[in-house]
Design a protein that fits this description.
Layout lengths: L1 H8 L6 H17 L4 H13 L3 H12 L2 H17 L3 H14 L4 H14 L3 H14 L4 H13 L3 H17 L8 H13 L3 H14 L8
Length: 218
């Protein structure tokens, strides 16, 4: 059991079968070590990785109570919130993380995604995307989110340029849309927001072919 947890910490158990196989041993560990933050985190990660998003919330929140595991569990829980479209939960988790560490690009990117897709804070999403690009100029996801935020602000011409640049960046880097389900969704959302519904549907269909099991795409 201890070895399983250590392997998990190294992100060794990544496939769906491995994740499902880890659930029962982790439950047994929790029975004997209910306050162990590492086990709580790994159990929450396994649950979310197998699509049990609702059940994953409580162990991840418990793990966040431990300073040593707080940031990792918080990012994972924010990913769960973004995946399930719970934008308020996502920003509620990410705001303190960014306040504490303004250079946390992962937290900034997730918050940009939540702010964009909630349609409640395009200005904030644009600021977060720009902050990520300052830290990671090659971030295609940030480029795509920047385009959607600009579109939400009705800066149409700038938005189109940003989305096109992001697409070109993917191609230049030798990456296809399949390398980023989130960016694939961003492109489809961009078309939808422009009322290009047939194009949006076509892009969404392509995303679904590449990522048929990704909750966010479905």
């Amino acid at each position: 059991h201890t070895r399983l947890v250590r392997d998990w910490s190294s992100d060794v158990c990544s496939s769906d079968l491995e994740l499902r196989a880890s659930l029962e041993p982790l439950r047994e560990l929790l029975e004997s070590r209910p306050e162990d933050s590492e086990v709580l985190y790994l159990y929450g990660a396994a649950l979310s990785g197998t699509g049990s998003f609702t059940q994953a919330v409580w162990p991840l929140r418990r793990a966040m109570e431990d300073a040593e595991w707080h940031d990792r569990a918080a990012i994972h829980l924010a990913n769960v919130a973004v995946t399930t479209g719970d934008w308020d939960m996502a920003t509620g988790i990410l705001d303190p993380l960014v306040d504490e560490d303004p250079d946390n690009s992962e937290a900034l990117l997730l918050r940009a995604y939540a702010r964009t897709h909630s349609r409640q804070d395009y200005e904030g999403a644009l600021a977060d995307s720009d902050a990520v690009l300052e830290l990671e100029p090659e971030s295609s996801d940030a480029r795509g989110l920047r385009g959607v935020a600009l579109l939400g602000l009705r800066r149409i011409e700038e938005a189109g340029e940003a989305i096109e640049q992001a697409s070109e960046h993917f191609e230049t880097a030798g990456m296809g849309l399949a390398d980023s389900p989130r960016f694939c969704v961003v492109r489809a959302t961009f078309a939808k927001e422009k009322a290009e519904l047939e194009k949006a549907e076509e892009i969404f269909e392509g995303c679904l072919e590449e990522y048929p099991t990704v909750f966010l795409v479905v």
